[in-house]
Amino acid sequence: MSTHAGLSITPNKQQALSVKNQLLLLSLPANKRTRILKTLGRHERALARKRIRQQTTVDGTPMAGRADGKKAKMLKRMGRTLEPFVKNANRLELKHKAALTGRIAALHQDGGVEQMSASRMARIHGTPDHNAPCSRSQAKALSAEGYKVRKSKGTGYRRATISEIVATLSQGQAGVILRAMRDKPSKTRWPIPVKARPFLGDTTPNVQRELVKIIDHINSKRG
Predict the structure, then answer these.
(1) Is 147 exposed, middle or buried (0-12, 13-18, 19+ CB in 10 A)?
(2) Is 133 in contact with 165 (CB distance < 8 Å)?
(3) For the whole model, what pTM was predicted?
(4) Based on the number of CB atoms within 10 Å of its own CB, is 135 exposed (0-12), middle (13-18) or buried (19 or more)?
(5) 3-class SS at 216?
(6) pLDDT by 10-residue block (mean), the chain, 223 residues
């Protein structure tokens, strides 16, 4: 059972069915086998969506949070586009229609490193307006680095407030100052570590129990 770009299940005696039920499944017509695997796929999709809602992984542990510490849920859209596909009436694939969505889901499923670039950031968030007022996040970052302004009376400098930074600097100026204070050159590409958040998958006993239940239900309606 693979859980890289999606969930793949090929029922066989080693993996998902006993010999008896494997023979029973093979004896069914192709359209009925397809119905069984589609039903299994919808069941597994419901489990994946439930994990995303509850922010838990396949083994029931809490899902890794956002790197920036924000409480917004992870993978909110990943469950919406999951679709069950059946190949040759004997293989179930639960995956995303769009290849890009599948790659993003696989990265979160297994963890890894995402390569970000300035051009990609611009496509995602739009080209920043360097003449626009400094954002509060930039102002907070400058304040944390110790950005100072001249004292209104006397000589010397004092630490600037966030509201003063927003009122006096543009986004472009804030970015240049922040990079200089951090002594970091402007980057065109940088890696972003992504923690594993496995939301897709199932154990062999669970798959076997669900398949047997589906087979019994469909066979009860035979004829």
Answers:
(1) buried
(2) no
(3) 0.66
(4) middle
(5) helix
(6) 59 60 78 91 95 94 87 88 91 89 89 80 68 91 92 87 93 90 74 90 86 82 60
